[in-house]
């Protein structure tokens, strides 16, 4: 796994767009094996980064933590 990708899910703060983009870029670099793609591969590389970033944003927005469910569940 990419050791340089930090955990973005944090109950105290929301991940910034810059953090999400950086993690997506690192992920695509790891998968593709390219640090910088060739001109022929730039479009595919950039699209992959954008799609991974969007999926990551959606995932982070939709995850429910145990503390979230405790706050929503009324005490008996």
Written description of the protein model:
This protein has a domain at 17-60. It is built from 3 helices and no strands. It has helices at residues 17-32, 42-62, 66-72. The longest helix has 21 residues, at 42-62. It is elongated, with a radius of gyration of 16 Å. The chain starts with 16 loop residues before the first helix and ends with a helix. The model has no long low-confidence stretch (mean pLDDT 86).
Short description:
This protein has 76 residues and is mainly alpha-helical.
Which descriptors would you attach to this protein?
76 residues, mainly alpha, elongated
Order of helices and strands: HHH
- Our measurement of the CA-to-CA distance between the termini, rounded to an integer number of angstroms, reads 43 Å
* DSSP strand content: under 5%
User: How is the biggest beta sheet arranged?
Assistant: none
Estimate percent helicity.
55-70%
Low-confidence stretches: none
Find the count of extended strands (DSSP E, 2+ residues): 0
């Amino acid at each position: 796994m990419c050791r340089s990708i930090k955990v973005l899910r944090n109950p105290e703060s929301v991940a910034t767009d810059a953090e999400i983009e950086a993690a997506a870029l690192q992920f695509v670099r790891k998968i593709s094996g390219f640090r910088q793609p060739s001109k022929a591969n730039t479009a595919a590389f950039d699209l992959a980064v954008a799609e991974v970033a969007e999926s990551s944003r959606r995932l982070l927005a939709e995850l429910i933590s145990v503390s979230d469910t405790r706050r929503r569940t009324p005490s008996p």
